[in-house]
Specification:
Aldehyde Dehydrogenase, Chain A, domain 1; 2 domains; 6-stranded mixed sheet; alpha/beta; binds nicotinamide-adenine-dinucleotide; Aldehyde Dehydrogenase, Chain A, domain 2; 7-stranded mixed sheet
Length: 501
């Protein structure tokens, strides 16, 4: 999911020193039709800083009535000034939007660290990725168009690409700003208007982004943000008759419920869901490189990553060597204050998510897996920290080998033959990502074809390339985000035939 980590960042501030839009956290308000509005119910929700387990702020608790207000604003904007923007004007405001994000990048990265607990250097990379994404889609505006198609009758047949309409964008808590940008970029580039529903745990960056877009010249009502719970605000968005499309990123279970709930209004639905990705290590792998990539791919973002290579499937000849080296490297990970530039792993998002991770580890141990390191709560620090865990002697039938834990847990299995590696890799209901480590390029190609995942990497652990399609097979999703493919998700194709008779 993440781009590779780079040098430490220029500025590291502290939670007390966050600089935000207009000098205050954009809290306790929804963002509808270009205005800060309280929730219709007047209710608010407490946000916790995961690094300290203390209150960070309160945000508006939007519900169905607020979603309705936001959809009305988006509908009005769709038929209003936004529809009169030429494609070049649309591109221009998106470039400006990206520029503003870059200018105020530490505001966004600090906010993301404080709301999610991500190490500040990761948040900085992510904030850059947000600016890059909006910039990419500003450029994509002029590169997405219809075709002229020779047909059997006398005339000209052409296709037009038209906006789908009001899009509901539903985003999870693990990469709040990045995933919002993956949806905002193409939705706006294609001329749609949106209602963005961030996770109730991490809504701050969505509010900030909407304000930045407004400052860049995106007209009122084009981006609306309703903060609130999934089962109320999220569900109201999915059921709303004037929402034409839902783009959802989150758990497979909720993705399935969204398909069911959107059937009545027959929405266009695209889904980016969970994963249990394999990390396949052959006996000719470049071991130092493989170890570095393997730990980064499963532990970054404290394992809360849909592309985490959480199942290492290792050739029996290098199994012991892999275990020894992977444990040694894991034990060097620095777990702690996300504002410290040396920190590798911040806290998990909630105490509940940490408990779920610990429960999986204990259940795995009870079933016979061996805990080689980690899996404990560090003494003496508040916040939802856990140390990264490596489990060996994992049987493919165990829940820890099949289910998405969404925490820093690496399960290590072994194989003898290439066929067995493929069979183990494909033995989950997910198919999002995966890595193959080998120096044999013919084998790499065979494996890349045989593993049923939407994103595979050879001799590295990167899943996400802004310019290339990203998405899942099987229960990992429907549709592809990023690259030019995403533009297809946010347009209808109209076929027009002009008779020459
Ligand atoms: P989640 O499914 O609980 O929630 C995701 C979003 O959906 C949140 O905004 C939530 O409020 C909303 N939601 C919840 N119930 C809803 C409902 N009934 N109707 C409409 N919206 C509803 O997921 P999460 O816990 O926020 O995120 C973790 C999950 O997301 C993991 O399974 C992870 O693999 C997945 N994920 C996938 C990708 C990907 O690109 N494939 C990326 C990041 C996370």
């Amino acid at each position: 999911m993440k781009p590779p980590r780079r040098a430490p960042k220029p500025e590291v501030t502290s939670p007390e020193n966050i600089r935000v839009t207009n000098g205050k956290l954009p809290e306790e308000s929804l963002w509808i039709d270009g205005n800060d509005l309280p929730a219709a119910s007047g209710k608010t929700r407490e946000l916790l800083n995961p690094a300290t387990a203390k209150t960070l702020s309160r945000v508006a608790e939007g519900g169905a009535e607020d979603v309705d207000r936001a959809v009305k604003a988006a509908k009005k904007a769709l038929d209003g000034p936004w529809s009169r923007f030429s494609s070049r004007e649309r591109a221009r405001v998106l470039f400006k939007f990206a520029g503003l994000i870059r200018e105020r990048i530490t505001e966004l990265s600090d906010m993301e660290t404080t709301n999610t607990g991500k190490p500040v250097r990761d948040s900085y990379d992510e904030a850059e990725a947000v600016a890059n994404t909006i910039e990419y889609y500003a450029g994509a505006v002029s590169r997405h168009y219809g075709e002229t198609i020779p047909v059997g009758k006398n005339g000209v047949n052409m296709t037009l690409r038209e906006p789908v309409g009001v899009c509901g964008l539903i985003v999870p808590w693990n990469y709040p700003a990045v995933i919002a940008s993956w949806k905002l970029g193409p939705a706006l580039a294609c001329g749609n208007t949106v209602v963005l529903k961030p996770s109730e745990l991490t809504p701050l960056s969505a509010l900030w982004l909407a304000r930045m877009a407004g400052e860049a010249g995106v007209p009122e009502g084009v981006i609306n943000v309703v903060t609130g719970a999934g089962e109320t605000a999220g569900a109201a968005l999915v059921e709303h008759p004037d929402v034409a499309k839902i783009s959802f990123t989150g758990s497979t279970e909720i993705g399935q419920s969204i398909i069911r709930a959107s059937a009545a209004t027959l929405k266009r639905v695209s889904l980016e869901l969970g994963g249990k990705s394999p990390n396949i290590v052959f006996d000719d792998a470049d071991m130092p490189r493989c170890i570095e990539g393997s730990v980064a791919s499963v532990f970054s973002n404290t394992g809360q990553d849909c592309c985490a290579r959480s199942r290492a499937i290792v050739h029996e000849r290098v199994y012991d060597e892999f275990l020894e080296k992977v444990v040694k490297r894991t034990q060097k990970y620095v777990v702690g204050d996300p504002y410290n530039a040396d920190t590798d792993l911040g806290p998990m998002i909630t105490s509940g998510q940490r408990q779920r991770t610990l429960d999986y580890i204990r259940a795995g141990q009870r079933e016979g897996a061996k805990l080689l390191c980690g899996g404990s709560v560090p003494d003496g620090i508040r916040g939802f920290y856990v140390t990264p865990a490596v489990l060996s002697q994992v049987d493919p039938g165990m829940p820890i080998a099949r289910e998405e834990i969404f925490g820093p847990v690496l399960c290590v299995l072994s194989f003898k033959t290439e066929e067995e590696a493929v069979q183990l890799a494909n033995a989950t209901e997910y198919g999002l990502s995966g890595s193959i480590w080998t120096r044999d390029s013919a084998r790499a190609l065979r494996m890349a074809r045989a593993v049923r995942s939407g994103n595979l990497s050879v001799n590295c652990a990167s899943s996400v390339h802004l310019e290339a399609p990203f998405g899942g097979y099987k229960k990992s999703g429907v549709g592809r985000e990023l690259g030019m493919k995403a533009m297809d998700l946010y347009t209808e194709v109209k076929n027009v035939f002009i008779s020459a008779d």
